[in-house]
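Sample entry as discussed:
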Amino acid sequence: MTTEWRHLNGTLTTWYDAPSHAAGAALVERLAPGAEIDLRANGLRLRTDTEESARDISKAAGELGLTADPSALQQVNLAFEAADPAAVTTFWRTAMGYEASSTGLQDPLDRDPAVEVHPLTDPRPLRNRIHVDVVRPSYAVDAARAAIGQEPYGAWGVALADPEGNEVDLVPGDELSPDADDWWANFAAMVFYPTTSPAQATRLTSAVAQLADDAGIPLEIDLRPTGVTIDGSKDQWEDDMPNGGPAFVELAQRIQAAAHDLGLTPDPRPLRFVQFGIDAVDGDVLSTFWRTVLGYQPDPREQVSDIYDPRRLNPVLFFQQLDANDERSKQRNRIHFELVVPDPQARIDAALSAGGRILERTPQRCLISDPEGNELDIR
């Protein structure tokens, strides 16, 4: 097997740098059906189940002059520890709109973080210092609230809690604009078009890639067997962003016109945005730690604490102020992150250099604490 590929979560995975959406789409156009593709303005991630497919992709990428960078690969997931794993799993499956998997829960489109639920061996009654934000179309949020049987609470009126007190801010999204009514604003502006064939999905991808390059607006374009998701990334559509406001709406209009020309209609049901918040006594220290371990970048806006994956493949993290005397700082969270990477030792070394501490280590995994006790399981 070519050295361009790594096994990540049991799937052959690679990343190719590319100078534009269209340059990445040129590779998509050469591929046989079967690979999952995440196309970005700076490259694309490919996942496939067979070595034969991986070899074919590598050959096509080489002919196009694309360079692989498997060191960029990582998957950030979420894990809960629960006294009643079945009840906690049911709650999060409903809130997030996920499906059951062999290890827990997963996004049906394999875009958002996977969730695992492990048995809890010691009582931890206080609120976590890590919480989850999930944004879905408003009607999906209404249905989830009804199925869970809770009225939302909290400062923003959107919080729900699972049977053991783990919280989610389940936020209703809105339609993006009357002029681009295929699209939803779920913190990120996004649309999903079901497709009936790989050729149809490829044609849509190529059209969107060219439109995005022409507009100078970076997009996430994700191809799956069931269709294509187009995502503008968190907040990038808003009026105060460089490519937001009317410029983004105009691009969204052009994209939906191209989709309609191909006979496609949107399906908002799979749309979802997921991010994670960390309550921090010293947000700067924790931001530095997590940026170092994950290779993230800080959001340049002064009013936000977000850090993000420069390839837009993994979830946003943000930090909120925690009082140094808050008793929650003395309790282990019931939630922790899991990081799957090709080279765990490099990330372990990065974590230790940024103030992390090893809590447990086996040949298969290493549990790290950040400087305030939030945990990351590297494997």
Notes: The longest helix spans residues 198-215.
